[in-house]
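Notebook entry, structure prediction.
Reason for the run: the old model in the group folder had no record of what sequence produced it. Starting over properly, with the input documented here first.
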Amino acid sequence: MSSSGTYKIRPAGRHILTIGRDLIQDCYAAVVELVKNAYDADSPDVNIEFRAQPDRSGYSIVITDHGHGMSRDTVIHKWMVPSTQDKLDRQQSPSGRIMQGRKGVGRYAASILGTDLLLETVTPEGEKTTLLVEWNTFEVATYLDDVEILIETAEVSEPSGTRLTMTGGGELLGEWNQKQFDKLRFELKKLISPVSAAINDELKDDEFRISLEVDGFPDVQDVTETIQPYPIFDLFDYRITGRISADGKGALTYSLQKARNTTEEKIRFDAGGPTGCGELVFDIRVYDREKEAIESLIDRGLKDESGNYVGKLQARQLLNEYNGIGVYRNGFRIRPLGDADFDWLKLNEQRVQNPSLRIGSNQAIGYVQIQSDELSGLVEKSARDGLRENTAFTRLKEITKAVIAKLEERRFDYRKKAGLSRPVLKVERELERLFSFDALKKDIRSKLTRGGVDRKTADEIIEIISRDAEDKNKVADEIRQTVAIYQGQATLGKIINVILHEGRRPLNYFRNQIPNLRYWYDSFLKTGDAGKLETFMPIAEGVGQNAEFFVKLFSRLDPLAAGKRTARKPLDLKKTIRNSLSVFDEEMKTHHVVAKVEGPDDFRFSSWQQDIYAIFTNLVDNSIYWMNEKKVPRREITIEVVTDGDSLLHVDYRDTGPGIEPDLIASEVIFEPQFSTKPSGTGLGLAIAGEAATRNGLELKAFESEQGAWFRLQPKTESE
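New structure, fully documented this time:
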């Protein structure tokens, strides 16, 4: 039997409940969706009332606004039409507000909050439309269009606005305890950015108040309040704010409240091209979490709603609850971005790698304000659970982390100077301090003399100390050599991508040609045809050439991979530097980087080859990274060895990259272990280079330059 015909897709009756209960994340999100609808209706306020029945048999939730209301026609042809694109088409409300609801499903969030819904809406002309929805009728209906809803319309003299009344029985009432209401208040407090109006001119004259009333719920404190954010937002330790235009350029302001008499710092920002996600406005505030920092936070004015100073435990709880960097569109947060347990920027992963420099998600409160999806490409998911994972969202994350990095760099420097960060161990400096006995011998001799001990006895005591110091300094030298080996191998690990890149081509040759070699060899054995050798020999020669490539590559890497240290000896400094650069030959070709080493060809400098490699390998690795990252058009590295006869005056290292910020140079924080301006950097490179210089009686300094980075390697002076 065969048949044909046309049919219509008919949604099941429970389709409406699927939209409301399954797509909306939770009851808090449901209230937020209905609050957004009040905003879209141009209401100056919205009032949310939770009232329990006196006998505890049920409750009602009433959400009232004073907006423009809906006509009967709007209710029938838009409100009752799931997934309508009315707001998407209009984009703005009559008074110019950017529409928060775009998907046409937010109103069905009411199905989460009660078993039925009474809608009462009045237009400015006095047309009042009323309808009652009993959600269980959709549950039992076979098809959606089987459900009929009675709509009544009358002329009234009431003010315009919309009133939603949701009722539920004892089972739903039992779900609302003190913890649930605290969570709701928390969500409402986070819904509107507390400082967005101060930054976004469009919101300055557009007040939108949210009021909450809770009455009669068992074991729940009654509430009547206008939602206001906690003052913790204003009591930050560190803050970075600013605006970045769609072209990727902008200005940021860094400020600090941990110390008195500090000034704001203006920072120019350049993303190196268009943002790819529209114009962005930032306000990110960071809090230290040590005991002293919490006490300071309270002292600066952290009070509860009764005006009392909170305790340290409460302060920590507030930070735990309110932390998160939200994404806001026209003043409203896009959930769950900004939730305390939703680390969309992966800050905690970065902090694990470098805890001294990076901040964790529980240390930041703030927001990024974005434009409409048409201008930014940032599109909300239909389920209201964040932004789509598209290219624009990837760029938003990259740029936000770059802005946070500006704060992290300055925070690291301040904490180091103020003695707040964990002390970092600089091996050479600490060994020198630990095994220096000159001051000790001087003090002992002075005390012995003042105590009446004769000179001969004093000399014998000092001699004993000197012999012990000599033995200990031998141990110190062994430690230095061991550390040098580890640092060389750490440098080798940093440039493993270079090794893999260079080795891939010859390995591919072996993989592809060895089977051919075997084939022609077997063919020659079978036929004895000497002509086969004409094909066989070029392949064999290629194997030899590529094997030689590996020999040269490994010989260039040997100084860094050495398992033991050879004796310090005079080296052809210019040649040694060139050899260290040769590690990056293929990498520099790939990224179009030109490097040159200038200076006398016959100058020799007593040093360890491994250390010279460690110094310049780390410098070159940084240069290539930043010139490529910032898409610098002219990519050059120049190294100049300057001498005076047999003496080294200095070695200047310059590149044409983006350079180093002057304040980072002045503080010398760039040489601190764990400090890095790379997004995923470990902060080892320049620290290792500095240690390697010290082992050879040198010091590595950075200087300001009009173009690119400028480092100078020079003999260490006696006063250093």
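Summary: Residues 455-494 form the longest helix (40 residues).
The old model has been moved to the deprecated folder.
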